[in-house]
Amino acid sequence: MTTLEKFLELRSFVNNVEKKSLVYGASFSEFVILRAVQAEGANGIRRVDLAERVGLSISGTTRALQPLEKLGYIQTQDETLDARVRKVALTESGRALFADITKDVQRRMEEITPGLQEILKP
Description:
Blueprint: H1 3-19, H2 28-39, E1 45-46, H3 47-54, H4 58-70, E2 74-78, E3 86-90, H5 92-120
Antiparallel strand pairs: 1-3, 2-3
Helix pairs in contact: 2-5, 3-4
């Protein structure tokens, strides 16, 4: 298999993983966002820092956060020292969702590891 063929196979593999919903209908992208927010704890994370961490634009991050906020999984916090700064943090239900999704992601990673290893073989 050529390098290009491996790249295309890997791209297809990642797209297929992304298309399959996790528990509660969450996407893998939402998991990545929740994971980055969760890592910052109760203090939250600035949207600009979150965007950088997950590899999205700031506007893309804002769009991705909207449904999570509507569902009550994240909350917006104002920075006490600078009113221009807004952070996001997980709510109680967001932490519970993240714990459930993490278990689902772990299970799926164990299932897909053999396929991924096959693609990455020299």
